[in-house]
Amino acid sequence: MIDLSGRSAIVTGGATGLGRAFAAALAAAGADVTLCDVREDALAVAESLAGPGRVQGLVADVSKRADLELLVDAAREGYGGVDLLVHNAGRWARTPVSDAYEKAVVDWDEIMGTNLRGLLLLSRMCVPLMIERGGGDIVNISTYYVLPAKSPGTNPPDTDLYNASKWALNGFTQAWAMALAEQNIRVNGVCMGPTDTEMLRGLWKGDPPADFAATWMQPEEIAQLMLDLIEDGRSGENIGAWIGEPVALSPSPARHRTITG
Ligand SMILES: NC(=O)c1ccc[n+]([C@@H]2O[C@H](COP(=O)([O-])OP(=O)(O)OC[C@H]3O[C@@H](n4cnc5c(N)ncnc54)[C@H](O)[C@@H]3O)[C@@H](O)[C@H]2O)c1
Fold this sequence. Notes:
Rossmann fold, binds nicotinamide-adenine-dinucleotide, seven-stranded parallel sheet, alpha/beta
């Protein structure tokens, strides 16, 4: 298993679901983790995840600049800087194009504020700190919607804002991977299919169909994929994870070796 002792990680949306699994996996690998969430239990969750790496939690909204400044200060003051950044906080909502105009505006602010504005601001704050420490890793949590479809149901038409936010996130992944390669900062997207979290369970009010629940992926599998990705050292790739297939890195394509030199 990768040893991340002495490295400082930030995980957004870390109180539950995939974010909690990412924070737990990083701490288990020895990293010192600063997690944030809008949920009040962020601090208690952080305490429960510590070991062997330290874990601190903050109640912070990634769409708010002042909250992000506090988050980055906590990582810098507590753990000396930032080496690893997992942009996990994400909002999903049905936003059919037939919605009322005023609802669409509110949905835009909520979804884009978390899924994109937070990603941009936090990266801008952390990249200089990574450069100070000689490099780092940014992992953007995306979705299989941005990959070539293997099954019907990707890019569903009634979640246009969510879909658009993840395609835009993909654009950041591609651009930053190239722009930051010389600074030894790797940037990748993790693009999984359905995974057992509160967000997905919410679609069935907590009671998903048994045949679906028997197949979806577990957050811990995706967290291991994230660790494998960091250990592998590739950059500029959207890593897919699909129901019914092994959750594992694909062979690294030659173009990524070119990007990372
Ligand atoms: N679960 C899936 O099947 C699935 C599939 C593909 C992609 N994803 C992506 O994975 C990520 C995590 O999803 P999940 O299923 O664990 O969701 P979740 O809703 O179960 O957990 C998300 C966490 O983020 C927090 N959060 C939301 N907005 C925030 C904000 N503005 N600031 C700080 N924290 C905030 C929530 O409070 C929650 O704790 C998201 O980016 C999502 O789009 C999930």
